[in-house]
């Protein structure tokens, strides 16, 4: 089964390929660069926008497209950055800029460690309609970056039950416990029904 992935984020593409265990083709290989306007008010709305935009652009009714909209939320900062995780520092910011902004926000409030959670909303677009599933991972964020594994905010995120950040832990651990792994487990149930 071939699935087109409506993402240009290299970290996500790598993880989704490893977790889905099927042929995953990033949309840019088929359509080149596309400007997808993520103006939804939730992870779910943005995942639907991405999946639908790519499904329509492919003009192939039998295509199956999956999209991931995700981010990290810190309750002590009123839920920031949440759906704005990819553009927290500024529009088009790098992962490093966004990570540094979140570290700076914690430092401003003199917070060394506080609860946080990752959300992943996955949308699947097909001729049978649009389906959505979610996954979450709870833990803490700290006011420094440790390790270089994973991507995005991983170097400052300590998953519940661990003492190291996702930047330091073996990537196999993230594969077992992540928001994306949990959401994709549910997405696989949908994909099996669409074949
Ligand atoms: P696409 O829309 O092309 O998929 P994007 O990076 O713009 O790529 P999002 O709008 O979903 O994707 O933003 C997700 C951001 O949240 C991402 O840039 C990371 O900063 C962060 N994020 C999501 N999942 C993450 C993870 O597993 N580890 C670390 N950071 C993550």
Overall number of structural domains: 1
Gyration radius from CA atoms, angstroms = 17 Å
Which small compounds were modeled alongside the protein? inosine 5'-triphosphate
Q: How far apart lie the N and C ends?
A: 7 Å
**DSSP strand (E) fraction?**
25-35%
* CATH domain topology: Maf protein
SS element count, helices: 6
Overall structural class, as computed from helix and strand content, comes to: alpha/beta
What is the 3D shape?
Answer: globular
How many β-strands, per DSSP? 7
Q: What's the CATH architecture name?
A: Alpha-Beta Complex
Mean pLDDT: 97
CATH C-level class: Alpha Beta
SSE layout and pairing:
Elements: E1 2-5, H1 10-20, E2 23-26, H2 28-31, H3 43-58, E3 65-74, E4 80-81, H4 95-108, E5 113-126, E6 129-142, E7 157-159, H5 171-177, H6 179-194
Parallel strand pairs: 1-2, 1-3
Antiparallel strand pairs: 3-4, 3-5, 5-6, 6-7
Bound molecules: inosine 5'-triphosphate.
What are the key terms here?
binds inosine 5'-triphosphate, seven-stranded mixed β-sheet
Condensed summary:
This protein is of the alpha/beta class and 195 residues long. It has helices spanning 10-20, 28-31, 43-58, 95-108, 171-177, 179-194; strands at 2-5, 23-26, 65-74, 80-81, 113-126, 129-142, 157-159. A hairpin with a 5-residue loop joins β3 (65-74) and β4.
Structure commentary:
This protein has helices spanning 10-20, 28-31, 43-58, 95-108, 171-177, 179-194, and strands spanning 2-5, 23-26, 65-74, 80-81, 113-126, 129-142, 157-159. It has a single domain (2-194), classed as Maf protein (Alpha-Beta Complex). Helix 1 links the parallel strand 1 (2-5) and strand 2 (23-26). The chain is globular. Helix 1 crosses helix 6 (179-194) and helix 5 crosses helix 6. With 195 residues, the chain is of the alpha/beta class. The chain binds inosine 5'-triphosphate. Residues 7-9, 12, 38, 50, 68-71, 85-86, 95, 98, 118, 150-154, 178, 180 line the site of inosine 5'-triphosphate.
């Amino acid at each position: 089964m071939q699935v087109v992935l409506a993402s240009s984020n290299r970290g996500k593409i790598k993880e989704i390929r490893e977790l889905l265990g099927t042929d995953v083709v990033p949309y840019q290989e088929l359509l080149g660069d596309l400007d997808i306007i993520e103006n939804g008010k939730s992870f779910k709305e943005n995942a639907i926008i991405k999946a639908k935009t790519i499904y329509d652009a492919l003009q192939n009714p039998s295509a199956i497209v999956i999209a991931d909209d995700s981010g990290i939320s810190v309750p002590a900062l009123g839920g920031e950055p949440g759906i704005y995780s990819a553009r927290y520092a500024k529009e088009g910011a790098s992962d490093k800029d966004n990570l540094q902004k979140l570290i700076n926000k914690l430092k401003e409030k003199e917070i060394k460690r506080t609860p946080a959670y990752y959300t992943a909303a996955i949308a699947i677009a097909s001729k049978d309609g649009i389906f959505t599933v979610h996954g979450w991972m709870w833990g803490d964020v700290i006011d420094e970056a440790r390790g270089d594994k994973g991507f995005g905010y991983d170097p400052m995120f300590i998953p519940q039950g661990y003492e190291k950040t996702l930047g330091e832990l073996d990537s196999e651990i993230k594969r077992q416990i992540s928001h994306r792994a949990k959401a994709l487990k549910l997405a696989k149930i949908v994909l099996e029904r669409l074949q």
